[in-house]
């Protein structure tokens, strides 16, 4: 059979779409978006949808920004592709490295580019093992992450993801991974437990995990400042300060996964800045190019980088790279993103609409399905449960969507708003350019979706 003909008759049957039901893809045409403008995307029939999660938490500057498009076009015309490696690169790559290091919340700042957040975190693991071997600590391989977190889809980053079911399904080796609880204050607290006591309990769990593993085998602790993918629970008071103090005592590094929280999502350029975190390394992606081109980066402290240089000097070369790491078109777009953040005062805009955003989500708490709302910067979550069930009892959210949240997601599509369903909630992270009026429209559509979901429940 002609491949093109098959694709025409069954448009979804040849492409495996991530996080999708594969049989359904063979049998039903997936929702197809054909254009976007601002915070909206449009399907084949012309219906508009508010992208309330910026697709995958990444289209921070919205769709079809002419400056970003033009930056890509200009670089395509000048030099569309040249790999960075073997002591060769392109000026825009060097410029982006300098500018990214200057704004990153890492002392010193040395940059290695990649293409995706998954790849950035993967190479951070690889660099960690390399650096510790150079330092004469080859046993320091284990990396601690938090259950229900998400750090990527490679083998190494799935091993850090904290989802035991996912790791088992793919046969992922997790021998160098350690897991501790993800903070889910207040629903994860014990009866009558204060916020301080809850924080101290999580820190003690981390200490015990390190001791049981053997401190000499533990290399780093990786965490998202705020994990939207894990249900958008802001960390409890004092959490990261106490975590950092404990790690420092053991000589264990702290890595901040800023793939989602970087570039303004929390109200400052970095989630680490908002929460007062001082990481040894950060990973970033998504908002780095406004998602217009695939690019990611690891930014390393002077101390961490010095070990890589020492090893490279001994070997004569730093034997790591990828064809598309620091792609010149991606780098040119990322530079334009940094220009736009300064010239349009994107952070100022985010800070001005954050109170409106928080108030809008809180206004949904009178709905019979809504048990709570959470906000941090321009991210949020709406916790839901069938009427009468009250607050959720589970202490840790699951990455898999539950029945009610999936129903709300589908009702949202019908109402023209795209949300992300998780277990017991939907999470939101709209483009940072969203206006007060657009926040009102998003909330209106989400309430329509809640009403439709409630009406469809069995009586």
Automatic annotation (TrEMBL):
The keyword Secreted does not apply. It comes from the Bacteria. Keywords: Aminotransferase, Pyridoxal phosphate, Transferase. One of its GO terms (molecular function) is transaminase activity. SUPFAM superfamilies: PLP-dependent transferases. Pfam families: Aminotran_3 (PF00202). Its cofactor is pyridoxal 5'-phosphate. InterPro entries: Aminotrans_3, Aminotrans_3_PPA_site, PyrdxlP-dep_Trfase, PyrdxlP-dep_Trfase_major, PyrdxlP-dep_Trfase_small. Belongs to the class-III pyridoxal-phosphate-dependent aminotransferase family. This is Aspartate aminotransferase family protein. It comes from Ancylobacter defluvii.
């Amino acid at each position: 059979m002609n491949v093109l003909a098959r694709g025409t008759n069954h448009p979804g049957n040849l492409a495996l779409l991530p996080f999708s039901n594969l049989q359904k893809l063979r049998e039903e045409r997936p929702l197809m978006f054909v254009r976007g403008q601002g915070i909206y995307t449009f399907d084949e029939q012309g219906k508009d949808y508010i992208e309330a999660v910026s697709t995958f938490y990444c289209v921070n500057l919205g769709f079809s920004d002419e400056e970003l498009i033009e930056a890509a076009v200009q670089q395509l015309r000048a030099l569309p592709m040249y790999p960075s490696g073997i002591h060769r690169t392109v000026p825009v790559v060097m410029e982006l490295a300098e500018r990214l290091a200057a704004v990153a919340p890492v002392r010193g700042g040395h940059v290695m580019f990649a293409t995706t957040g998954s790849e950035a975190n993967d190479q951070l693991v690889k660099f960690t093992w390399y650096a510790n071997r150079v330092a004469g600590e080859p046993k320091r391989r284990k990396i601690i992450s938090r259950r229900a977190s998400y750090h990527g889809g490679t083998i190494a980053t799935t091993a850090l993801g904290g989802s035991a079911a996912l790791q088992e399904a793919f046969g992922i080796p997790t021998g160098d991974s350690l897991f501790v609880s993800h903070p889910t204050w207040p629903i994860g607290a014990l009866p009558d437990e204060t916020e301080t006591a809850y924080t101290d309990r999580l820190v003690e769990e981390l200490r015990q995990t390190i001791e049981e593993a053997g401190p000499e085998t533990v290399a780093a602790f990786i965490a998202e400042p705020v994990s939207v993918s894990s249900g958008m629970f802001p960390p409890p008071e004092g959490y990261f300060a106490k975590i950092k103090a404990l790690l420092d005592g053991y000589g264990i590094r702290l890595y901040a996964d800023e793939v989602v929280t970087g570039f303004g999502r929390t109200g400052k350029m970095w989630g680490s800045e908002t929460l007062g975190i001082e990481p040894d390394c950060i990973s970033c992606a998504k908002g780095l190019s406004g998602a217009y081109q695939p690019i990611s980066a690891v930014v390393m402290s002077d101390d961490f980088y010095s070990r890589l240089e020492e090893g490279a000097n001994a070997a004569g070369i730093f034997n790591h790279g990828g064809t598309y790491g620091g792609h010149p078109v991606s780098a040119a777009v990322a530079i334009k993103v940094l220009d736009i953040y300064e010239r349009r005062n994107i952070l100022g805009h985010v800070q001005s609409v954050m109170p409106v955003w928080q108030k809008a989500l809180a206004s949904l708490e009178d709905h019979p399905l809504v048990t709570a709302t959470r906000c941090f910067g321009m991210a949020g979550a709406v916790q839901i449960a069938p009427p009468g069930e009250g607050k959720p009892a589970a202490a840790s959210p699951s990455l898999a969507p539950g029945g009610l949240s999936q129903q709300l997601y589908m009702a949202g599509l019908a109402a023209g708003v795209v949300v992300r369903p998780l277990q017991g909630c939907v999470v939101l992270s709209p483009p940072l350019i969203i206006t007060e009026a657009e926040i009102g429209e998003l909330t209106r559509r989400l309430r329509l979706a809640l009403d439709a979901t409630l009406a469809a429940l069995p009586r």
